[in-house]
Amino acid sequence: MSVKNLYYYFSGALSPEICDNIIKAGETKLNLLKSAGANTSGTTGGAREKQALKSSKAVSQADKTAMELEDPENSYIRDCEVSWLEDKWVYDIIWPFVKEANDKAGWKYDVDWGEPVQFTKYPSPGGFYGWHNDSNSDHYSKYKKAIPGITPIKENGNYIDNHTPNNNFFGKVRKLSVTINLTKPEDYEGGNLKFDYGPHVKRDNQFHECTEIRPRGSVIVFPSYVYHQVTPVTKGTRYSLVMWCLGRPLKWKI
Length: 254
Prior knowledge:
By secondary structure, this protein is α+β, with helices and mostly antiparallel strands. It has helices at about 15-35, 90-105, and strands at about 10, 60, 75, 80, 80-85, 115, 115-120, 125-130, 145, 165, 175-180, 190, 195, 205-210, 220-225, 225-235, 240-245.
């Protein structure tokens, strides 16, 4: 799939007060999860997060895909903590930006639902998330119904990929991804959202670091099939908010 605009952003759109409130809510959820003995590490396909590896010699493989890992058994492509927010006030903040970006970027995708919002904490040194996309957006990626007691469950307690008990997800795919930068740029180094446009796209460079969303409160929206990463945080802590917007896959009619 090819589109004219691979992302649409709003620089410094959220006030410091809103950013503080989101961080407070996200940290509160993180602490509750930890006190209950839950795993707060951000999960990946194939359990390639740092916290899933038992080896003390685990090596960061930032800027490499899962297929390029030099030592797969002791390599990780994600190091961060996450909690989940489903408060109405959070969705009320995000959805107007999604609608405006979807229209002005020219995508005009059919989206009608949002997944739980992921609050992410990237610590230093080395908090990052390697190359990935959030969905292929085709019919093979549609959410399927998870049946308690029948549908297999992974080691982290989640259902196997693309299965959910949420009725609002069935038959839908991730179409748009949203990231909000919650941290003042002077409070951390590194930690940039970075896109891979692909070697055959007619653009100036294959890769692009989105330094334009460094200002606190910046919002960026992009198609979920676009490959991206978060570069390693080398100083301070980066806080962000992520949401995936769902809709029916593209249809073919004769």
